[in-house]
């Protein structure tokens, strides 16, 4: 049976699980909800970088990304931050949709999976 490892396990969710050489990240949201879409996006991407590093991989190994925006009017500004962060030549399959957030001050949530290095 393949090993399953969970990281940062809480009573409701784990921040990440690794199974069969794939890291599955929970939806990442910013802690600082006072910022605009660009600052919230930077914070979420930094969280993703930290979790991927903890798993022994990085953004060049992303398999899929799902981005949830509170308002699609933020799409262009979010993409400015995304484009500066994503690794050239390693852009993953991605979907971006508008969604009602659990906390209305949260402007973005990102879910992703990555292959281990």
Describe this structure in words.
The protein is α+β, with helices and mostly antiparallel strands and 117 residues long. Strands 1-2-3-6-4-5 form a six-stranded mixed sheet, covered by helices on one side. The protein starts with a strand and ends with a strand.
Give a quick precis of the structure.
Helices cover 26% and strands 32% of the residues. The chain is an alpha+beta fold. Strand 4 (62-69), helix 2 (75-85) and strand 5 (94-98) form a beta-alpha-beta unit.
- Estimate the helix proportion, in percent: 25-40%
Number of strands: 6
Helix-strand sequence: EEEHEHEE
In order across it, which strands form the biggest sheet? 1-2-3-6-4-5
Q: Indicate the radius of gyration in whole angstroms.
A: 14 Å
Topology:
Blueprint: E1 4-9, E2 14-19, E3 22-25, H1 37-55, E4 62-69, H2 75-85, E5 94-98, E6 108-115
Parallel strand pairs: 4-5
Antiparallel strand pairs: 1-2, 2-3, 3-6, 4-6
Helix pairs in contact: 1-2
């Amino acid at each position: 049976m393949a090993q399953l490892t969970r990281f940062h396990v809480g009573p409701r969710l784990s921040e990440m699980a690794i199974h069969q050489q794939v890291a599955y990240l929970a939806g990442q949201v910013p802690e600082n909800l006072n910022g605009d879409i660009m600052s919230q996006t930077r914070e979420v991407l930094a969280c993703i970088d930290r979790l991927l590093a903890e798993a022994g991989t990085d953004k060049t190994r992303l398999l899929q990304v799902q981005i949830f925006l509170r308002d699609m009017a933020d799409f262009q500004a979010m993409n400015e931050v995304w484009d500066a962060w994503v690794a050239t030549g390693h852009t993953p399959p991605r979907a971006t949709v508008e969604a009602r957030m659990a906390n209305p001050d949260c402007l973005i949530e990102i879910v992703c999976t990555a292959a281990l290095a």
